């Protein structure tokens, strides 16, 4: 479906907002970019858009008449509960996301992955596996560049692998991947989605528009994901780390195995994986499921899995200093993700946690901290609530630091040979950093200074 001649309001001048505004303008749409920030705050990246023929509606005082537009395109940072979106819906103006625009402009089949945790690792794995088919493969979405930019030049002979967040699915109306994956669903972003039911409904949009010819790869071990699959029209392919399934992707002993329509395909032993932790076994199982239905040979899946060293900011080994190994897990922006990280180690961990509080339940997280962590060092706005939750679980050694530099120095001073120092915040980063990537990079720079 084309957008030529359509009046498009793009809400939010972040990375994806600017990208989709540029793409729509190239496709012949009449584009206005709206943001509550001023031109001075947004800088040169947005100033240059005016020369491209894109109108700007910036600043708090700018009143937008939504009825002047055919579509409102919302960036991931704009909630569907925002006044602009609610006004558009009341007046019958269609509200879509940047990912929806990308889908409507994309002639290539899409493999799409969502879930609370594990999205980036699984998406990257699927991308590497898909490349073995000889097709041109584009990877984007919630990883790397905006999806609308990534699909700009693709053809129907190519393959698109997309990491999709719940925010991006809010405005997904017709989005239909040929293979979708739902990795897991745990409480996250409830400040935005309000209820767990709303959050699950948004995640479900990744497969809502699929047909019986499409596939959805889903986590059998997650009861909420299984509940979501009751609404699937597409063919449900389960993966499981805990159960040997009659059909799907599972472990037969220590062997990753695919069973489909009476045939069984051994892939590789989990002991050949370089990525650590049981959660990464689940990511590998899911990736094999998606890749199988994208036509990837099982032998090629095995080669990719045995070579894959993981992605940045996910239990990433940084350095060993004085016989203490430092790991960067800055992508752990919720307790469930940090639980997965802690489970990857036998114990004797010095844990750096805290940041922008999402007000999620900390009980299970702090029980594991009590079991595995020798010292908990807290940073950021969530520090006091995390400290209280830790004390409730009888965690004894709790430190506070007012900066990442102070936290790393404290960990360095405390650490004994063969302990592990792990940054796994269980929180968002926005109180101290631009994003989790910046948080991880700062941590790594500080660790490398220790080693030098």
UniProtKB/TrEMBL annotation:
GO terms for molecular function: ATP binding; UDP-N-acetylmuramoylalanine-D-glutamate ligase activity. GO terms for cellular component: cytoplasm. ATP binds at residues 115-121. Residues 313-427 form the Mur ligase C-terminal domain. HAMAP family: MurD. PANTHER family: UDP-N-ACETYLMURAMOYLALANINE--D-GLUTAMATE LIGASE. Cell wall formation. Catalyzes the addition of glutamate to the nucleotide precursor UDP-N-acetylmuramoyl-L-alanine (UMA). This is UDP-N-acetylmuramoylalanine--D-glutamate ligase. The lineage of its organism: Bacteria, Bacillati, Bacillota, Negativicutes, Selenomonadales. The gene is murD.
